[in-house]
Design a protein that fits this description.
Elements lengths: L11 H10 L2 H30 L14 H6 L1 H38 L6 H17 L1 H17 L1 H11 L12 H36 L4 H14 L1 H30 L9 H35 L12 E2 L5 E4 L6 E2 L2
Antiparallel strand pairs: 1-2, 2-3
Length: 339
């Protein structure tokens, strides 16, 4: 497997976006898989709303939103539907993470090869090749997020609040003002959001390292990746942060456009606004797929510069013979030729 040459850090995220955009069959495929998961979660709700609304309300009466009367009349049915949706959602969330591991292998396989064409075929080859290795990163990611949540919301945070503000067991009612309490909560949530982003970046770099070095141990690769992030925080996190801002700006634009389009809802039989809202949703999924692929491309380019190659064993170490000539192994009868 051959890899591209490393590129300057200042343009990593831009080159990564271009590389991902240049492969539309792949990001269309990944967006389609995500849309199918969303459709699976939406179908039970569509059937339930169809039964709850039919023959009870005027056509188009609640196209903009549910009325208080509907919420009161269907509160019992809504509760049971929510419970059922939670179980389905949990299964779909696990399936989404497994699909993410498969797509990660596909993206990395495509980016690590110099060959052109047949990108979908190489995508599926990489997804199947790295799937079980990358799937082992999922529990490590969840464990890291759990540790971050425990540090920021459980005993360590309560000790810090008690030491800094005298708030026993994290009780913020003893603070001098409500503004101070709000700032503490904002800092707490902000730190967790930052930890969440770093853990996701760690997962991306861990998979890139495993693909680049062709290793199997997710634990060892994860430990090495944490050390790499600590040694090179700016070089490793800056490209992913830039891609995150690109994605956030794109999603904000899609959301504002969808909000404007919602103003056209209300006329019974007018399906054009609904169609455009559907297309805006697909556009958001496509944007997410592009940025996700660009993230793996950026992780590969940075890893090529900061991750040392693994030492490979020399097959002729225990042999006698000059380069390009016959090699006679010590303690054996067979011989080969060194090229």
């Amino acid at each position: 497997m051959q890899s591209a040459l490393p590129i300057p850090g200042r343009v990593v995220f831009l080159r990564a976006l271009i590389a991902a955009l240049a492969r539309p069959p792949i990001w269309i495929l990944t967006a389609t898989l995500t849309a199918l998961l969303a459709l699976t979660a939406a179908i039970p709700w569509l059937e339930w709303f169809d039964q709850a609304i039919s023959h009870r309300y005027a056509p188009g009466a609640m196209i903009r939103g549910l009325s208080e009367t509907f919420s009161f009349d269907s509160q019992l049915g809504t509760g049971s539907q929510v419970v059922a949706a939670r179980g389905t959602g949990a299964g779909l969330a696990l399936l989404a993470m497994l699909i993410g591991a498969f797509c990660a292998g596909g993206w990395l396989q495509v980016f690590l090869e110099r060959t052109r064409g047949h990108s979908v075929q190489r995508f599926f080859h990489g997804g199947s090749r790295f799937f079980f290795r990358f799937a082992r990163v999922i529990p490590l990611t969840l464990l890291s997020l759990h540790v971050a949540g425990w540090l920021l919301y459980e005993t360590p945070w309560k000790w810090a609040m008690s030491f800094l503000f005298g708030a026993v067991d994290g009780n913020l009612e003893v603070l001098s003002s409500e503004l101070t309490a709000r700032r503490v909560v904002f800092a707490q949530d902000g730190l967790y959001a930052a930890c969440f982003a770093v853990v996701l970046a760690w997962g991306t770099y861990t998979r890139a390292r495993m693909a680049l070095q062709d290793t199997n141990s997710a634990v060892w690769a994860g430990v090495c990746t944490w050390w790499t992030l600590l040694r090179h925080p700016v070089r490793t996190l800056t490209p992913l942060a830039a891609l995150w801002f690109v994605e956030a700006a794109g999603l904000v634009g899609v959301a504002l456009s969808a909000r404007v389009m919602q103003g056209g809802l209300g006329a019974p039989g007018d399906w054009m606004p609904v169609l455009f809202l559907f297309l805006f949703g697909l556009l958001a999924l496509l944007l997410r797929g592009i940025v996700r692929g660009a993230g793996y491309h950026a992780a590969l380019q940075v890893s090529l510069r900061v991750v040392p190659p693994l030492p490979r064993p020399d097959p002729w170490k225990d042999a006698i013979g000059g380069p390009g000539g016959p090699q006679y192994p010590i303690g054996g009868d067979e011989y080969g030729v060194s090229l």
